[in-house]
Predict the structure.
Amino acid sequence: MGPSVCVYLWRVFYCCRGEDYYRWGTTKKGIDVSTKSNTAVLSTLLEQNRTAIIEEWKRTVMDSLGHKYPGVLSMDELHRHADMKLSAFSAYFSTCGEALVTVTKESTLGRMVYELSTDHDMRGIKPVDTALYLVALKKAISHRLALLLPNSQEQLVDLLEPLFGLMDQLTLLSFDAYSTTREKVIAQQSQSLMELSTPVIVLWNNVLLLPLVGVIDTIRARQFTERMLEAITRHEGIVTIIDVTGVPVFDTGVARHIMKAVDAAQLLGSKVVMTGISPEGAQTLTKLGISFANVTSRVSLRAGVAEALKLVGRRIELINGAN
Amino acid sequence: MSKINLSIRTESDISEAVRQSRAMAGRLGFSTTSAYYIATAASELAANLWIHAGGGVITLQRLDGKGGMELTTIDHGPGIADIDRALEDGFSTANGLGCGLPGVKRLMDELDIASFPGVRTEIKARKWL
């Protein structure tokens, strides 16, 4: 039987005696806790000691983060934040009964943490420092409580339990908020990458050029196929040059995507000239057993353009015998 | 780094496997062409994890001794019921070109497949310097 079990039994014993237990918890400072729940007491204490808690918290935050983010955190702002948080805490605890209420994203506290986290992210404050911000608040409050209740460990523990419960929830929420913001940023970035990645260029009348750059995955493949087919229809493309110089690796997946695009282009009556397969790419394709049998291939984009022009009955030549 | 573990869960994880294996092959002293072969093999194996196995892990590793590189994939997907058929050209269960695994075999020097369908599948592909 460990010491914690002893304490537990001891508490059960005192709880059975009801009134005595609470009287034991009362302090000299005259905090009357005889009829209130722990959370209600906590709510009152937070209100009464607001200034002292805020001062300690500001000091801790400035000491640990002030030098890391010079000019980013101001005392006034910290004061406002702490003030808002403490009001929200005390409101939260006053509505809680014995059991803690789960803090959702939509609640006042949840929104507050989300805003804090998003705001910090925008200003370049790392998520770990945002967590420190919240942890420092937990510390400041628990220090204050310890000072107020110097002789009653037991009651202190009872008060710290809901406080820690709430602070842990808030810290988790701040990480959730951070990852949500990040996911949004990543989604936006990949969207903008998509938009700039597959242009279709009208090289000459009825000659289209599709430079493929980067990884060809399912989404990219669908996108460039759609754009190519649309351009072939709109510009009556007789020849389409697909340049794969910028494709890092030619595997069966990429080959399959390109074959499908080529088939579709040919169904619309456009011939396809493929350019820019590297020597390594060519050897790999033969090892894989893939042959682009129905496609004209040229080693460079220059040779491809010459071939394409030939197919529409044109050629590039020197003006007046210049060289 | 002589060993890299990569988790393959999404399609973009495949290109990470390609980048890493190509870079590692280059560091180990493979020629550009061999590095391209290894990267393509990694791409095929990783794509198999993504398409057929619902995800898995690919490990890129340096081989000591005579020197080389090994790609290992481990997954807990449905597995390969008939390994000989999977190594036949033109055989595909998922509307592919059917040259992924046989391609890997030709691109690399050695290919070992151990599959306990529904339990665990492990594929090792080695290429020597």
User: Anything to note?
Assistant: Chain A touches chain B at residues 215, 217-218, 248-253, 255-256, 278-281, 283-284, 287-290 (CB under 8 Å). Chain A has two domains: 16-191, 201-311. Residues 153-197 of chain A form the longest helix (45 residues).
